[in-house]
Design goal:
This protein is α/β, with parallel strands linked by helices. The strands form two sheets. Strands 3-2-1-4-5-6-7 form a seven-stranded parallel beta sheet, with helices on both faces. The protein has a six-stranded parallel beta sheet with strand order 10-9-8-11-12-13, sandwiched between helices. It has 15 helices and 13 strands. The two termini are 14 Å apart.
C-alpha cells in the first residue's frame, strides 16, 4: 500500500498542531506502509514541495491553496490512497479522487464553520475555504476526527455526511522526545527566574490568549508568565495581544514573551520547568499542546472546549474551566484557578506526574498509526 499524505505544513515550516500531527503520524506510518508526502512550499529532501510563482504569491491565500492543490492532484497518480490534512490540502485529495479515481481520507483538525473570525484573516477567501472544506468532506471516502468531540462537531457542521464514514482516532505524542527536561542554563540565558506558568501557541482568536492576558491582570504578581506565542494570523489579534503583553510587562518584571518560534528542545525545557501549563482555547479539536505539556510532567489548566477533556483528565492531570462564550466569567475563573493552583505546588507536582503516565499509556503514535492503516485497508477494500 502506498499512501500520499498531503499537507500545508512540513518541516522546517511547522507552526501548529496539524503540522506536528502529520510529522509524527508519518514517521510511524512509514514503519507499516509506503508513504509519499506532498507539501506546500519549496521542495524538501523527504517531501515533494509545491512552490508558487511570485505572481501567485500575491493572490488571496485561499486561491493560493487551490492552485497548489491542483498541482498536487496531478502528481498523486501513483498512490493507492490520498490522506489530506486541513482545508488547505483537502482539495488536493478531492481533485485527485475526481482526476485519478483515488480514494480520499481526510483528517479533521479544525472546521471552517467553527472559525468565523477567519474572515478577518483572509476576507472573501473564507467563503472559498468554507466551500472547499465542505466539498472535500462530503466527497471523501472516510474522515478521521482527532477526538470524539471533533467527530460530533464534524457531523453537526456537515449533516449530509454518513456518520459511518466519520471515525475518531486521537492525536498522539512522542513521549521520548517530550519528556521532563528542565534546563537551568536555558532559564538563565533568557533571564527567567522564580515560579512561572506558561502558554505555548499561535496568536489566533481560537487559542484564547487575549483572555489569558486579561485574566493575568489579577494574578498574584509573585507568579511569572512565559509566553511562547507568535505568528498572528491577522493584524487585529496581533495588535490586541501585543498591547496586552506590553501592558503586563510594564507593570511586572516577570513576564517573558518569545515572539519568534523557539527550537523544539527549548520549548520542551521551558514546559518542563513550568509549574503550570495554561490552555485558554475557545476552540480546540484536541489540543496536542496539552499532551506535550503532560508528557513533560507539567500540570495543565485548560478550557473544556472540543476534545480537550479527552486529553486532560480533570482532577487527575490538571483542571478544566468551562467556556460558554461569556468572556468575563471565563477570565475570572482562570484568574481564580491560576492563583489557587500556583499556591499548591504539591498538587501541581501530582498532576504533572499523572499527566506523563496518561500521555505514555493512552497516546502512542505507533498505536494510532496502526488504527489509521486499518482504516485505509477498509476504505481500499470498499473501493
Amino acid at each position: 500500500m502506498k499512501v500520499g499524505l498531503v499537507t500545508k505544513e512540513w518541516e522546517p515550516h511547522i507552526y501548529g498542531g496539524a503540522g506536528v500531527h502529520i510529522k509524527y503520524l508519518t514517521k510511524s506510518l512509514t514503519k507499516l506502509i509506503e508513504t509519499q508526502v506532498h507539501c506546500f512550499g519549496e521542495p524538501r529532501t523527504d517531501a515533494i514541495g509545491y512552490e508558487l510563482s511570485d505572481s501567485e504569491k500575491k493572490l488571496n491565500p485561499a486561491l493560493q491553496a487551490l492552485i497548489t492543490d491542483l498541482a498536487m492532484a496531478e502528481n498523486l497518480k501513483s498512490v493507492d490512497l490520498v490522506h489530506s490534512h486541513t482545508w488547505y490540502a483537502n482539495m488536493a485529495g478531492h481533485f485527485s479522487k475526481l482526476l485519478n479515481g483515488t480514494p480520499h481520507v481526510i483528517s479533521a483538525h479544525s472546521l471552517e464553520p467553527d472559525r468565523p473570525w477567519k474572515a478577518e484573516q483572509i476576507g472573501g477567501g473564507y467563503a472559498i475555504s468554507s466551500w472547499a472544506e465542505k466539498t472535500a468532506y462530503e466527497g471523501a471516502d472516510a474522515i478521521i476526527a482527532v477526538s470524539q468531540g471533533m467527530r460530533r462537531d464534524v457531523l453537526k457542521a456537515y449533516p449530509a455526511l454518513d456518520p459511518n464514514k466519520v471515525h475518531a482516532i486521537l492525536n498522539g505524542i512522542d513521549t521520548e522526545k517530550y519528556r521532563p527536561s528542565p534546563n537551568s542554563q536555558l532559564l538563565s540565558k533568557y533571564g527567567i527566574s522564580g515560579r512561572y506558568a506558561i502558554f505555548v501557541g499561535r496568536i489566533t482568536r481560537q487559542k484564547g490568549l487575549a483572555h489569558l492576558l486579561r485574566a493575568w491582570q489579577e494574578v498574584n504578581p509573585e507568579f511569572g508568565l512565559v509566553l511562547a506565542a507568535g505568528s498572528p494570523d491577522e493584524p487585529g489579534i496581533g495588535k490586541e495581544v501585543s498591547d496586552a503583553i506590553n501592558k503586563l510587562k510594564a507593570e511586572r518584571n516577570n513576564v517573558w514573551w518569545f515572539e519568534k518560534m523557539l527550537p523544539q528542545d527549548e520549548v520542551i525545557s521551558l514546559l518542563s520547568s513550568a509549574d503550570l501549563f495554561i490552555c485558554p482555547s475557545i476552540y480546540e479539536p484536541l489540543g496536542i499542546v496539552n499532551l506535550e505539556a503532560m508528557a513533560c510532567e507539567t500540570a495543565v489548566l485548560a478550557s473544556d472546549v472540543g476534545g480537550i477533556p479527552e486529553v486532560v483528565e480533570a482532577g487527575v492531570t490538571g483542571e478544566l474551566i468551562h467556556y460558554d462564550g461569556q468572556a468575563d466569567s471565563f477570565e475570572v475563573k482562570f484568574t481564580e484557578r491560576i492563583n489557587a493552583l500556583m499556591s499548591e505546588p504539591d498538587k501541581l507536582t501530582q498532576y504533572g506526574k499523572a499527566g506523563r503516565v496518561r500521555a505514555i499509556s493512552n497516546f502512542s503514535w505507533d498505536s494510532i498509526a496502526k488504527e489509521t492503516v486499518a482504516l485505509y485497508e477498509r476504505v481500499l477494500n470498499k473501493s
